[in-house]
Write a structure and sequence with these properties.
With 388 residues, the protein is of the alpha/beta class. It has helices at 13-27, 37-41, 45-54, 65-73, 94-98, 108-117, 143-155, 173-192, 205-210, 236-239, 344-350, 355-360, 377-383; strands spanning 7-12, 31-35, 59-63, 81-84, 101-105, 123-128, 159-165, 200-201, 218-221, 245-250, 253-257, 262-263, 269-270, 275-280, 297-300, 303-308, 316-321, 330-334, 368-371.
Length: 388
């Protein structure tokens, strides 16, 4: 009998590094910003960021200022640019400015708050353009006022305009082309108003791969770096990417039950024969959706078994028939697919969602265990509890 942990997410830092190297090769000579929002897509922000920095990444996107300050606190220096773009309406920007955190700005009021928070050094600002996604960025009507304030603040030494940026809806080639045309027009307006735009970035993972002309000066890469390609029908293996997270658990209990036994809540599954049920201690509190019943199969000893009955908060059952499955056996929920287990992309397709949602929903009580040669240097020091 094996002795698997109750539940864990194994994070292969060698795979992450290999994906980084491959994506940078694809994008060369364009810079790559490694996106690490949502705690690095559920993989753990600090170890992933340190591994990326050790690999030579000099742009990291982390969504919020608190996340960026976490990275500064563990020794990610100012030679690494930390880009943030979602700000609390009451955020005091002083710590961000003093720590050289790059701030995405979408409106005049937000930029004015940044300007007023400046003390000893100018704020690093990226001006956002709403090119049609309508989540972030200034609309064409509001853009000139934002540019004029940024121009004046830069002339007064209060800010440094680092870039203009937008985000694409990735709805269709034609609509993305129209969105980039809106962005390009906004940059022309900025230059006509006397504001130089040193850098432009518009493309994320999918557009960066499929539309070379959208790469501009930098591409923001997120899901691809974790081995989760976004293109329909394309696997990680098709692109040469390696899945980074493997989710495993252990068989907590087994029991023999007779034919026509109702299983889990509501008895939505009944056994077809006398069989063995194996209890897996992972549930929807850990990120396994209730919809997984009848859609997801897990692997035990190299064989797949369907989830039987409702997924509960803390556990689910699988019907293993007459196979010799024992307490303590390793259960692979998703992994690389090399041993016929489902991958995170398989989960996404089976659950009518995307792989990014699956990994981001793996809960905090699932320990992240970091593996590979990349668990050295600053990554290893961080995991040992050492701080700069």
């Amino acid at each position: 009998m094996s002795s698997a942990p109750l539940r864990q997410a194994r994070i292969d830092l060698d795979a992450y590094r290999a994906n980084l190297d491959l994506v940078r090769e694809w994008m060369d000579p364009v810079a790559v910003m490694a996106i690490m929002k949502a705690d690095a897509y559920g993989h753990g922000l600090e170890p992933i960021a340190l591994a990326a920095v050790d690999a030579g990444i000099r742009w990291i996107g982390v969504l919020t200022v608190p996340a960026a300050l976490r990275l500064r606190s563990i020794g990610v220096g100012e030679d690494v640019h930390l880009f943030t773009w979602q700000h609390d309406p009451d955020l005091d920007f002083r710590d961000a400015i003093d720590s050289a955190v790059d701030l995405g700005v979408s409106n005049v009021a937000e930029l004015q708050r940044i300007v007023e928070a400046v003390d000893q050094r100018p704020a690093r600002v990226h001006l956002g353009v709403d090119s049609g996604l309508h989540r972030d960025g200034a609309t064409p009507a509001d853009w000139p006022a934002l540019v004029e304030l940024a121009r004046d603040a830069q002339r007064n030494g209060r800010i440094e305009v680092v870039a203009a940026y937008t985000h694409l809806a990735e709805s269709s080639d034609d609509e993305d082309s129209a969105a980039v045309a809106v962005f390009d027009a906004a940059v022309e307006i900025a230059e006509d108003l006397g504001l130089d735009v040193p850098m432009e970035h518009v493309a994320a993972s999918l557009a960066g791969l499929e539309r070379k002309e959208f790469r501009k000066d930098m591409v923001r890469m997120g899901a691809n770096l974790f081995g989760i390609p976004g293109a329909d029908g394309v696997s990680a293996a098709d692109l040469g990417l390696e899945p980074v997270m493997t989710l495993t658990a252990s068989v907590a209990k087994t029991k023999r039950v007779p034919v026509d036994t109702g299983v889990s809540y509501d008895y939505t599954y009944r056994t077809a024969t006398e069989t063995t049920l194996a209890l897996v201690p992972v549930g929807y509190a850990d990120g396994v959706p209730r919809l997984a019943q009848g859609r997801i199969e897990v692997a035990i000893r190299g064989k797949r078994y369907p989830i039987a009955g409702r997924v509960a908060m803390d556990q689910f059952l699988v019907d293993v028939g007459d196979d010799d499955v024992q307490t303590g056996d390793t259960v692979v929920l998703f992994g690389t697919g090399e041993h016929d287990e489902m991958t995170v992309l398989d989960w996404g397709r089976s659950l009518d969602t995307i792989g990014e949602e699956i990994v981001c929903r793996i809960g905090a009580r699932v320990p992240r265990v970091y593996e590979g040669h990349e668990v050295e240097g600053r990554v290893g020091a961080y995991l040992r509890g050492e701080r700069p």
